Amino acid sequence: QVQLMESGGGSAQTGGSRRLSCVTSAVLYSMGWFRQAPGKEREGVAAISSAGGGITYYADSVKGRFTISRDNTKNTLYLQMNILKPEDSGMYYCAAAGLVTADDWSDQYKYHAWGQGTQVTVSS
Fold first, then answer.
1. Are the CB atoms for 94 and 77 separated by under 8 Å?
2. Which residues, in sequence order, are CB contacts of 31 under 8 Å at separation 6+?
3. How confident is the model at residue 79 (pLDDT cuts 50, 70, 90)?
4. pLDDT tens-digit profile of 14-53?
5. Higher per-residue pLDDT: 28 or 72
6. What is each CA distance from 112 to 25, 41, 56, 97, in whole angstroms?
């Protein structure tokens, strides 16, 4: 069974940075980061494919600010978040999928394993 555990959440000021980590046994899978704010649906933030040398995908709202990466030697997925905004606040989850593409990486139903989440709060 795939296991995932996020860490690195916390508080930040607008314009600040945080790096999330997700330790996982799913090193051969495509991986994604999702977030959910209170009263809102879960949304895809970024993903990295298991194919093609690790193709990355980003939501338009985070392009140029967030970077997803993975270190298979450490079984860890990362999300570097820069120039944070209050609207980036929410619970962040990492998730594993068999394979994702540009057309479906943000579809949460493609992911079969989820971490418990880590909270990020950005204040203005």
1. yes
2. 22, 24, 47, 48, 50, 68, 70, 77, 94, 95, 96, 97
3. very high
4. 999 999 999 998 667 899 999 999 999 999 999 999 876 7
5. 72
6. 13, 18, 19, 6
Strands (E), 16-105: 18-24, 30-36, 43-48, 56-58, 66-71, 76-81, 90-97
Q: What is the pLDDT of residue 85?
A: 98
Spatial separation of the C-alpha atoms in residues 107 and 34, rounded to whole Å: 10
Residue 71 CB neighbour total at 10 angstroms: 11
Residues 93, 5 contacting (CB under 8 angstroms): no
- The mean pLDDT value of the chain amounts to 94
CA–CA dist 64, 99 (Å, integer): 24
DSSP count for the chain of H helices, then E strands:
0, 11
